[in-house]
Amino acid sequence: MVAKRIIPCLDVKDGQVVKGINFEGLREVGDAVGMGVQYARDGADELVYLDISASREERRTFVDLVRRIARGIDIPFTVGGGIGTPEDAARLLDAGADKISVNSAAIADPTLISRIADKYGSQFVVVAIDAKCIDGRWTCTTHGGSRLTDLELFAWARQTQERGAGEILFTSMDHDGTRAGYADAVYARLSEELTIPVIASGGAGSIEDIRRVLTEGRADAALAASIFHYGQIPIPELKRALKDAGINVRV
After folding, report:
1. What is the pLDDT of residue 17?
2. What is the average pLDDT score of the chain?
3. Is the pLDDT of residue 23 over 60?
4. Do the Cβ atoms of 198 and 170 come closer than 8 Å?
């Protein structure tokens, strides 16, 4: 049985890790490299770095940051933000990233997924999906959750898999930063409809929240930010509790 993964997420703006609630009210919480090094020491299985200020002018700065992260940690890490071409992906992979994540650009041009997957392999491609529930329909968004699209979550997730995505990272915007629990039923349905791994994001507030999304929610990995950034739940304590609950995690 494949072990469930615990993945801290680090939203990066100008080299600093930031966090908000429902994608708003961002504030700095620490240094991107230093926090990554500590999470690796604490037993995180992977890391996700998202460049939330990715403009063309800042892209070179982020590539340099990725190089420093790669030198500092010994666990896999995914990077995303502002990746619009296979060449953008190549620069980040060459800098040391293990995977890249695409979101808004993939919605604008779904062939981006297959073009990157065809060149580097599906295992390198994570498609991030940010969605909110509107009148009972999970609607995908772009540009950090600021723009609604016509895409429905489950249909888009299936399409990304067909186009070569190796993993899905779904964030419920309704739950993000609230620490009120994940959208467990949504993850369970995604896991039912897809054959690729599903990473759950948005809403972790307790060990029990993570236990539920990995069991009832059937997610392959739990991603969280606030509970780790502010020291609410140390990763070693979390993993021991999950193991005691019968969940296969690496400790």
Report:
1. 87
2. 92
3. no
4. yes
DSSP 249: B
The active-site residue out of 11, 45, 184, 220 is 11
- ∠ at Cα 156 (139, 87), nearest 5°? 115
pLDDT tens track for 185-238: 999 999 999 999 999 999 999 999 999 999 999 999 999 988 998 899 999 999
In the DSSP assignment, the letter for residue 246 is T
Residue 228 phi/psi, 5-degree rounding, is: -85, -45
For the chain, which residues make up each domain, given as ranges?
Answer: 5-244
26: which 2 tokens? 């961002």
**For 138-151, what is each residue's pLDDT tens digit?**
999 988 778 899 99
130 catalytic, yes or no?
A: yes
- Helix (H) or strand (E) segment spanning residue 152: strand 147-152
- CATH topology for 5-244 is TIM Barrel (3.20.20)
225: Cβ contacts below 8 Å, ≥ 6 apart: 8, 9, 10, 11, 19, 177, 204
Residue tagged active-site, from 51, 88, 130, 220? 130
CA-nearest of 7, 34, 32 to 19 is: 32
Where are the alpha helices (H) located in 43-183, listed in sequence order? 56-72, 86-94, 104-108, 111-120, 153-162
Q: Tokens at residue 150, please? A: 């016509």
Q: Which two tokens stand for residue 7?
A: 């993945």
DSSP 8-state secondary structure symbol assigned to residue 241: H
DSSP of 36-63, one letter per residue?
Answer: HHHHHHHT-S-EEEEETT--HHHHHHHH
Q: How many CA atoms lie within 13 A of 153 on its CB side?
A: 25
